[in-house]
C-alpha cells in the first residue's frame, strides 16, 4: 500500500470525525476494505500525523454494535484475539466456547502472537487467567489447550493414530471424558495427527467421535470437548454453527456474529459462507441482511465480502 494512500486514508478518517456527526459511510468505505497490514499502517500514520490513537477516536465517535465491529476489525489480529480471550475469561461460564475457538482454530504462530499481545496488554499470561477463572474439568482441558504450541507439519504417524484412537475409544466408552490421555491427545498432537487418529476412530469403531461425545446433550463439558474436536478438524463447520445459532428466530447474538466475521474475514470466510449456504439453503449475506440493520449491517456485509474482491 503506497504511503500516499495511507496518508489519504488517515485524512479521510479524520474528515469522517469532523464537524457535527460522524460520517459512518466513509469509515466503512475505508476500513472494511483494508487488510490487517494496511490497517496497521493507517494506525501508525494516524498516530504520527495527529498525535491521536485511531482506536480511541473511533471509540469516541461510534456506538453499539457498529462500534464493536469497527474496533475489533481495526485491532491487529493478535491484539483482537488477546482482547476476546480476556473478555471470555472474565465472563467465563461453562457454555463459553470462545477460549476453545481461539486455542484450536488459530495456527501455532497465531496463538503464540495472541499470547504475547495478551502479556503486553494485560500484564498477565493468558494461561494464568484461564486457570484462575475456570475450575474442575474445564480448567483441566482449557489450560493445556491455550498453553500448547502444536507441530504444524503434515507428517502423520499411522501406528500412533491407531493406538491413540483405541485409547480415545476406551476412555469414551468408560465415560472417562476428563481422562488425562483424552486431554493430552487433544491438547498436544498436531492437527494432521489428530485428523488421522479420528479418521481411524471412525473406521475402526463405526462412529464419528463427536457422536460418541453426545451421549448427554446437557453435559457442558462434553459440549466443549465436541467444540475442541470440531475446531481442530473442521473449523468451517464449527463457525457455520456459531453463525447459525447467532442468527436465529429468537433474536440475534451480535457478540458471536461480530466475533466470527472480524476474526475469519481474512482467513476462511469464503469456505464458511459456502458451508452456511449448504446447511441453511440461504446465503450468509441474505441472513445477515435480514437480521441486522444500518451501519452495523453494512460493515458486516463489507467484511464477509472482503476476501471475494
TrEMBL record:
GO terms for biological process: response to cold; response to heat; response to salt stress; response to water deprivation. The keyword Ion transport does not apply. GO terms for cellular component: cytoplasm; plasma membrane. Ca(2+) 2 binds at residue 297. PROSITE patterns: ANNEXIN_1, ANNEXIN_2. InterPro entries: Annexin, Annexin_repeat, Annexin_repeat_CS, Annexin_sf, AnnexinD_plant. GO terms for molecular function: calcium ion binding; calcium-dependent phospholipid binding; phosphatidylserine binding. SMART domains: ANX (SM00335). Keywords: Annexin, Calcium, Calcium/phospholipid-binding, Metal-binding, Repeat. It comes from the Eukaryota. Pfam families: Annexin (PF00191). Belongs to the annexin family. A pair of annexin repeats may form one binding site for calcium and phospholipid. This is Annexin. It comes from Vitis vinifera.
